């Protein structure tokens, strides 16, 4: 019984098979917090385009984004650009980034503490966890590519894009600053007057869009796998390379975990990089063999043969059964030999008899 289950568990606990498994299937999206006011939650990231480095920042409430060229990619240069934006639009409550070298150093941590900013870091090597800002990176690169091919001004392109309304919640400029900004397109002066869009309507629209996107994006995806502190796992170090580790801590509000390898090094990875580890268990001794005295010498082959011979001699022989008597069979009559027929043919010189066909007997 349970042989199929035992075979399945034995195969699934093979260390070699576990270390070269395929990647896990894509997991379902994790819904992020929806802001209630402009410039409450912003994201920033670095991107590279045509031998130049850029720093981009985007507002999750209004969809307003901006990017500038970086002469150097040091943390000091990034902090200087952020201070310039924060002096114009204000200090955000939450700043999201991918935790790169510019955002993970001590200098940036001190800047976040001194400016009272909650810095949230996405999972390393997992851009999908910071998809909000990654989407605006794609839009910025596409806008730069269009302007480069047409030879148009990138600043005018940004101005027009920020004034493009989105359904019934206005344009990014209207949601962020409460007014439309003047462009080269002729318009009435009344259109440029301040008009604040209801924050409740914007928040509800953003929440509905998020629910719709998650509904279609989760088709065919697997739910997130939860782990507990101290649990033994396998960590995807590289494609087809899973190494053993254990869970140390789970980050609140995200699907990232702090793991520790056997050599004591700690990493922070998304749950997509982790899977449970199955350790092989040695089969336990059965109850029948557990009670035997292992110190007693085992009988030799000769002793066992002698004991079996004695037991056979000591056993009484079974009584012989009398076979039932059968009536004698009648004697078979000897067959009557028929007289040999006269041979009609001839004999060759070699002695072979040749019998003529019947058709010639006429």
Kindly list the characteristics that best describe this protein.
Nucleotidyltransferase, domain 5; 5-stranded antiparallel β-sheet; Integrase_cat-core; 12 strands; 11 helices; 19% strand; SH3 type barrels; RNaseH_sf; nucleic acid binding; Retrovirus_Pol_polyprotein
Walk me through what this model shows.
With 362 residues, the protein is α+β, with helices and mostly antiparallel strands. Among the domains are: 41-217, Nucleotidyltransferase, domain 5; 226-280, SH3 type barrels (Roll), CATH 2.30.30. Helices cover 32% and strands 19% of the residues. The protein is built from eleven helices and twelve strands. It has helices spanning 3-12, 15-19, 75-89, 101-104, 106-114, 131-150, 154-162, 172-177, 199-217, 287-290, 301-314; strands at residues 41-49, 52-59, 65-70, 94-97, 118-121, 232-238, 241-250, 256-260, 266-270, 274-276, 345-347, 353-355. The strands form three sheets. The chain has a five-stranded mixed β-sheet, sandwiched between helices. The longest helix is centred in the middle third of the chain and has 20 residues, at 131-150. The model is unreliable at 286-296 (pLDDT under 50).
How many DSSP helices? 11
Rounded radius of gyration (Å): 45 Å
Average pLDDT for all residues: 83
Low-confidence stretches: 286-296
The coarse overall form would be elongated
- Characterize the quaternary organization of these chains: single chain
Major beta sheet summary: 5 strands, mixed
Biased composition (Polar residues): 283-298
Region (Disordered): 276-362
Biased composition (Pro residues): 316-330
Biased composition (Basic and acidic residues): 353-362
